[in-house]
Amino acid sequence: MKKILLATDGSPHAEDATWFLAHLPHGDKVEITVLSVLHVPTAGSVTGLGDWVETILERERERAIDTFAKIELMFDGANVKLKHLIEQGHVSETIISVAKREQSDFLVMGARGHSQVERLILGSTSDYVATHASCSVLVVRPTGFRKANHPIRIAIAYDETGPAEAALEEIAEVRLGAEPDLRVVSALFAGGVDESDRRKSTELAANKAADRLRGTAAHVRVESIVHDHIGEGLVRYLEENQCDIVVVGETPRTRLGRVLMGSTSRFVLRHAPCSVWITRNRMLQGIPKKTPQAETAST
């Protein structure tokens, strides 16, 4: 996590995402590009209103500059390098395009913004970006952590698959340090005569995964859930344990594949009560054969 794109529209949810990122532990210096996108109406909707549109866009530019000044204060003294980009275009597509152009490996945004569908579980922009972006994405939902006294609670969904292993690698590279409460959560389908044996095998793998993380994080424990719907089981666990972030791995797909994504990560993205970190970077780069300790030592 060295090049971060922070998409903001100055809304309270975007401010929560900024605050969350500013307080997310990280070991190395990172470059943060703050992106403000000015939506340009289609030609048909602005016929005869050219001067009015320019006035609105100018106001939005001024607002974007003011928002960036506030963000600079939030990162004052942090080990980061900030820059600001103001772009015009379709908001979702522009965020994805800039992330690719800037070669961002991590994209952060709030779950809701200035949208007429703000009351939905996930706003249309964050939903689209999280689904289509080629890099890892953190969608921040307000959980009350900003006013809480407890360490940040991070749950990693783990099931021995390639995407889950990649998620483990990505978290290990961040070097979370002593503060976070990190849980490796193994998920198992309920039912079947071999459920007991499968559960033992899954928990053994999860404990090995936790051991790999203990080289980069001080507080790591293993939890297990058994449910007839993995996504629902994870969401219930997150609710009952008041987690602040859930980390789910996803295999990079074609553009069409992401649009049709009906996976556990998609379900969690839509229904989790907390922030959702979808990891894609390690699957793109290939999971290394060396241990996480060696990986972070050379990061």
From TrEMBL:
Transmembrane segments: none annotated. It comes from Rhodopirellula maiorica SM1. Pfam families: Usp (PF00582). Belongs to the universal stress protein A family. Residues 1-141, 153-280 form the UspA domain. This is Universal stress protein.
